[in-house]
Each structure stands twice: as C-alpha cells, then as structure tokens.
Amino acid sequence: MTTLGLVPAKQGKAVFLRKGETIEIINTHGNQVLDTWAYNAHDVTEHMSMEHTRSVNSTIYANAGDLFSSNRRRPMLRFRKDTSPGKHDTLLCACNKELYTELGCKEYHRNCEDNLREALKEFYLTPPSTPSPFNLFMNVITGVDGEILRSPPAAKAGDSVELVAEMDVLMVFSSCPQDIKPVNGPACTPSDMHYRVLPPGTPT
Amino acid sequence: MTTLGLVPAKQGKAVFLRKGETIEIINTHGNQVLDTWAYNAHDVTEHMSMEHTRSVNSTIYANAGDLFSSNRRRPMLRFRKDTSPGKHDTLLCACNKELYTELGCKEYHRNCEDNLREALKEFYLTPPSTPSPFNLFMNVITGVDGEILRSPPAAKAGDSVELVAEMDVLMVFSSCPQDIKPVNGPACTPSDMHYRVLPPGTPT
Questions:
Q1: B79 to chain A nearest CA, in Å?
Q2: If exposure means fewest CB atoms within 10 Å of the residue's CB, which of A48, A53, A58, A189 is most exposed?
Q3: CA atoms of B28 and A80, how far apart (whole Å)
C-alpha cells in the first residue's frame, strides 16, 4: 500500500505523476470539493482544458471512462473509477479573492486561485493565467433552461475517484476554502483531502 | 451613421472600445459564428471569462440583458440587444490547429486561436493563453443528460447583437474558419462579418 498524501483543508498541493501512474483521490471526510488542474510536466503551456474536454466529449459532465483533453487536444488524464455519486463540475471558475470580496469579506480570504499559485511555487512555476478547473465532487447540474443549480457535494466520507496520467503531468489540487456558501457541505467547514499515487498496472 | 468595420472571413480583428461605447456586430450573410474575446485595455491579464460569467449569471447561456464578467469578477461587457434568434455559446473552445489535424487536415488550417494571436499582434500584444471564447451566433444547446448538441447557426443575414463596454476594452473577434463541419452553416463557407462602434448614449 502506497503512502497517503495530504491536501490540507483550504490549501493547495501539486503532485507529479509519470505517464501510466494513477492518482486515487479520497474525499476523506465527505462533502469536500477539490479544484483540480493538470499541466504537461515538460511544458506547462499545455494544460487540461475544460472547454476542449467538453468539445471532445460533447458533454458538460465528467464521468468515469472519460478522457480529459489538453488545450492542444491531447489526452492528459483518464477518469477510470468513481465510487462517489459521480457529481463533478466542469462549468464553474475557481474561487478567487474577488469572489470573496463579492461575498462581503473585508479581509483576505484563502481561495483556490491563490492555492494553485502557491502549490506551483514549490516547483518554481508561475502560471500566467488560471485555467478553468475540474471541480471534483462539486455538485452542479443544469436545468432545462440552462440554469446552473448548485447543491452541496453528494460525496460521502471515503468516496474516491481514480485518474490515470496519459502523459507525465503535474497535477494541482485545491481543497476549496469556501466557508460562506455551502459548496463544501451544509456545515461550511472545508476539510482535508487525501490522495495516493498507484504504480502503472494497478488494477481498479 | 458610423463606418462599418470588417472582420474578414476566416480572419481575426481587434477593436478598441472606450467605456460606454457600444459595438454592434452584424452577421452580414447569416450563418457565421464569431469567436469573441475582451481584454481590459489597460491590463490584458484581466479578460472576459466564460467560467466567471457562468458563475455570476448562473446560466450556461448568454442572453440580452446579461453582463459578462472578467476573471477578476468585474463587469466588462453588457449584452444590450439581440435581433438574432439568440443562440450563442459559452461552453466550447476556440478551434485551434490541433482540432483541424484531428479532423484530417494534413496542412495548416486557419483557426480562431491563431486569429486571436494575429489580431493582438497589431497592438503589440501576445496573449499567454487563450481564454475560453464567447462564441457569438454559435448554436449549441445541452440536452437533459448534459449532452452538447451542435446545430448550424440560426442567425439570418443582417441579424445583429450589441455589446456595451463597461470598461475600456480591447475586443478581439475571429470569423470562425471552420469549413469542414457545419459550424458556420450547412454550406461550410465562412463569410465576412461587420461591426459598428456606436458612441455612448446611442439609443438601442
């Protein structure tokens, strides 16, 4: 059994994956949203793109079996397993400091956009922009008129997903610090998340 | 009457708008999709963001009356008038050279992503990445299971939209060069588009 890695509540974490490795992401306490990005580890101008992924897969949702495309339309990640109720979001932005100002915060509030920057700093990288994130466990559906309906995550403690690296990738996670709206559950209490890197060939 | 500007078929064009000015965009021959971006004219790290706009407006569609937000969650454009059937897309990527390779092109094919770069070059600017575009007149709806359904544009010759600048903006348009799929109508023939800049206070 490989060691568990931690994405601390409200913080970011970058993880390098070699092609063929799988990352298992565990919603340790349930209810938590994890904003997720992936970069080509050898050229960070190539990154996972929600708009290209939607174009390739012709759906606004992300389900086990799907491939995630880069902005150069190459497969970056394969979504191979999902023990959660399968509610994840491809439509919404990462939260940023301006969003918290909008919500009434007078002082700095931790946010997913800055978590991305902090996490990449460990690798001496500065992203020129914030790609649209894949929001794991974020329970967003659209209504018949295209309205975006947000519900608290449906993921229970211990639910997990598995993503396989289709190239060498630098993944970045942010355990979303949202504690004003019930994005991370009705308790509005962001929590730790865990992950495990599985070697190539690990069965699902 | 102000002069008509041209966005040539398959090409890009950048247009500077002062706060309060309106740009009227005319689907001259009907059927044509126009990929659209907007940058803060004084700081191009701030740009119109589809993911923030969806977050603010809580819809995947864009309708007359809506505001478009920047990646710093400030209003950039106001969608004040639409004489077309109102089908526009916020979900899909700009086409790029890799997309045309995927469609079987052996040689370079003009594309909206490179049109963005070319258009900004006139202003001595190089975008570090391609923001997700607002695809004017692109007829994309989602089905009940979130599937993305593409139809040829519903816009007829002469249909137009009006966008008001809520700050000084540099707008970029690309008359989409897609001539393999019927994105720009069943004839697969991209066409010229026109625009007119209207001074502040021009009635709708």
A1: 18
A2: A189
A3: 46
Taking an 8 Å cut-off on Cβ atoms, the answer to whether B98 and A60 are in contact is no
B89, B135 Cβ separation under 8 angstroms: yes
Of the residues A35, A54, A135, the best mutation for testing chain B's interface (the one with the most B CB atoms within 10 Å of its CB) is: A54
Cβ of B145 within 8 Å of Cβ of A59? The answer is: yes
Could you read off the pLDDT of A115-149 as tens digits, one per residue?
A: 999 999 999 999 989 999 999 999 999 999 999 99
ipTM of predicted assembly, 2 dp: 0.97
Confidence of residue A52 (pLDDT cuts 50, 70, 90): very high
CB A94 within 8 A of CB B120: no
**Nearest residue, CB atoms, A60 vs list B128, B131, B148:** B148
Rounded to an integer, what distance in angstroms lies between the CA atom of residue A26 and that of residue B21?
Answer: 50
CB neighbours of B33 closer than 8 A, spacing ≥ 6?
B135, B136, B137, B138, B153, B175, B176, B178, B183, B184
Region for residue A41 given its phi and psi (left: phi exceeds 0; alpha: psi -120 to 50; beta: otherwise): alpha
Q: Identify the residue among B61, B73, B151 best suited for mutation to test binding to A, counting A beta carbons within 10 A and taking the highest.
A: B73
Q: Round to whole Å and give the CA distance between A76 and A78.
A: 7
Q: How far apart are CA B155 and CA A63, in angstroms?
A: 33
Question: Cβ of A129 and B132 within 8 Å?
Answer: no
Q: What angle do CA A86, A76, A122 make, to 5 degrees?
A: 95
How many CB atoms within 10 Å of residue A103? 12
Are A130 and B71 a contacting pair at CB < 8 A? Answer: yes
Which tokens in the block code for residue A194?
Answer: 């865990």
pTM to 2 decimal places: 0.97
- The predicted-structure confidence for B161-191, as pLDDT tens digits, reads as follows 999 999 999 999 999 999 999 999 999 999 9
Element spanning A118, H or E: helix A112-121
Suggest the residue from B57, B60, B69, B111 to mutate for an interface test with chain A (most A CBs closer than 10 A).
B60
Contact A73 B129 (CB under 8 A): no
Instruction: State how far the Cα of A166 lies from the Cα of A150, in Å rounded to an integer.
Output: 31
B24 has which bridge partners? B162, B196
Distance from CA of A2 to the nearest CA of B (A): 36
